[in-house]
Amino acid sequence: MHMRGMSCLAVLLASISLLACATTPERMETAEDGLRPPRPRVRIPPTYPSRALRDGVEGYIQVGLTVSGRGRVVDVEVLAADPPGVFDRDVERLVGKWEYEETWIDGEFITRAPVIVTFQFDIAPCSPKRGLDGELLHVCTKRAR
After folding, report:
1. Residues 76, 62 contacting (CB under 8 angstroms)
2. Is 131 helix (H, G, I), strand (E, B) or coil?
3. At a CB cut-off of 8 Å and minimum separation 6, what does 49 contact?
């Protein structure tokens, strides 16, 4: 009976510990905090939006992502775009599927914002680039030879 009571106590303590982890709010860190940007784990490559390609529209869009400590993109904000409104929906949908490495400090998950990503859309041959956060991602219709 004593052994059974100890195992029940261990299960109870483990359950409380897991519940505390699941409900602990994440700290928010910004780029000014001196932490390196979160590293991409899953990054679906961008494609040229079909409507923009059909209409011959080139331009760029810069977005700021909020990345949870568990690596999920939880918010996307358009910071700048030219022309406005052309690439927004496609880029927001795309980056919403990206995943980053988990970030934590002292056992606490850290939400990161803003993680800045800029997409340059060109209807011309180019060498697409996959940059890290804060870098330019070049999206084009054909690869340069």
Report:
1. no
2. coil
3. 86, 87, 90, 121
User: Rounded mean pLDDT of 120-135?
Assistant: 68
Tokens describing residue 76 = 């996307």
Strand-pairing partners, residue 125, are 142
In b/e form, how buried is each residue of 9-23, taking b as 16+ CB within 10 angstroms?
A: eeeeeeeeeeeeeee
Residue 52 has pLDDT above 80, yes or no: yes
Residue with token string 């780029």:
31
Return the CATH class of domain 26-143: alpha beta
CB of 102 within 8 A of CB of 71? yes
Q: Residue 35 is encoded by which pair of tokens?
A: 């932490």
